[in-house]
């Protein structure tokens, strides 16, 4: 168990926890924003120390969330997973305390009643499964797995057409839960509970959704990969390398930022490094993330 992996929030009556799998990964901003330099990052001193290094590298984490609302326990994405072969070394053959951390956070895996994947990239579906006796089996066999109808159609199309994207994760993280009959295909109008609904945030992938929590007058959003890093609040319309449809991703970010700036809603970023959350506030002619600690 690693206490620093876990963070808790309460939004009205909804309890939320974060479980980190790869913490505070430093990389060049050009990985995310094409052509951007460390000097560009340094124009936004509010990013230091949580989200950028003083020398202008971005800091990202890979993490999942779990929430409890009205008697339901829902995983929001499932991170990278153990024992995987992936495109990049940093994600291969991880051995982490993810499932133990889930229990330590107060959400034992056997209590999970639903798994919602914001989209179907490898770093959001990994713990859908785990390896038992050399076979991939559902980690949460008692849960329904909720995948976007349109999202799955796109990945299926990529596989059928030998598309441009690395698809290794479909075989170990998606197919086994489909074969077990645990998947429900949903649209963005789906509600997880009366307190937890979805917001359609396409661009990063075609069927991408963010999670909208509203309870007792309080509000939070779990972004998914609609944005990866808080610097995107300063430049929401700059195209991002990781988005499948870059113009759509930019438009989605811009309208999201305008909708929630100054709203008091807690914005929990799926790749924002610790403390992983804050409030969107105006910053000159753009916006920034204001963190509480
Ligand atoms: Zn991601």
What does this structure look like?
The chain is an alpha+beta fold and 293 residues long. The chain has one domain: Ribonuclease Z/Hydroxyacylglutathione hydrolase-like (Metallo-beta-lactamase, Chain A). It is built from 6 helices and 16 strands. It has helices at 38-41, 98-104, 149-160, 168-179, 231-234, 246-260; strands at residues 6-11, 14-27, 58-69, 72-76, 114-116, 129-132, 135-138, 144-148, 183-186, 191-193, 196-200, 209-215, 218-222, 266-268, 277-283, 286-290. The longest helix has 15 residues, at 246-260. The protein is globular, with a radius of gyration of 18 Å. The protein starts with 5 loop residues before the first strand and ends with a strand. Zinc ion binds at residues 121, 123-124, 225, 271.
Summed up, what is this model?
By secondary structure, the protein is an alpha+beta fold. It has helices at 38-41, 98-104, 149-160, 168-179, 231-234, 246-260; strands at 6-11, 14-27, 58-69, 72-76, 114-116, 129-132, 135-138, 144-148, 183-186, 191-193, 196-200, 209-215, 218-222, 266-268, 277-283, 286-290.
